[in-house]
Input
Amino acid sequence: MARRAIVAANWKMNGGLALVNTIVSGLTSVKLQDNVDVVICPSFPFLSELTSQITENKLNEAIHVGAQNVSAHESGAYTGEISTQMLQELSVKFVIIGHSERRSYYNETSVEVADKISATLKAGLTPILCIGESESERAEEQTEKVLASQLQPVIDEVGIESFANIVIAYEPVWAIGTGKTASSEMAQETHKFIRQFLAKANANVAAKISLLYGGSVNASNCEELFAQADIDGGLIGGASLQVEQFKQICSTAKGK
Ligand code: PGA
Output
């Protein structure tokens, strides 16, 4: 069984042309292990420049461009939205969907998230589906229930077989941007739950899906996290804005 590791950089609303230049020149010398994909997700205005620079600088073919969000609609009167087709035109390969910041600040529901996943899959792009519990939900031992309630609408809408083309990022909300990482044991236990939950619907799909951990991952804690049996890489926020640190995280990941 070969499972790819993925290291995805979520720049959020940070960085611009200068960071595109810095990251591309930094990644020209990155050493990646076997079966690893790196995905850089800048804000929409910089997708095109990032794609061009990756090609011009002949970066490793395992380095891809991703978006941080997408519309569930194909086209039409949706002011301010970006469609999957527009992303395809820019050679985007991955789309982060359902990040906790979108769920909490923009009221995205799990049903809307499922619609976006469906649109993304139809366009042949790979969604990175983000799920995770809040601090109070963890304290109330609701973590598994919350994760199940975030996964089930997607399974219902696109079918479990489609998870062969989905990546999941487990990000406990309390660990995002706080410096409070889940312990590697806690992260592993939750990743194992997610894999087992999917396995109830389709064991083969569950065994092959890449499950990423996100939430204050950095160059010091990534090795231990990535060594866990069910953790196949990470979704990196703050540390992805620092090129040397991000390179080290990328070099640490390897497929399982
Ligand atoms: P962080 O963000 O690494 O800054 O905690 C991760 C994320 O929100 O994807």
Observations:
- The beta strands are 5-10, 36-41, 63-67, 94-97, 126-131, 167-170, 211-214, 233-236.
- Residues 184-201 form the longest helix (18 residues).
- The pocket of 2-phosphoglycolic acid is lined by residues 10, 171, 176-177, 214-217, 235-239 (CB under 6 Å).
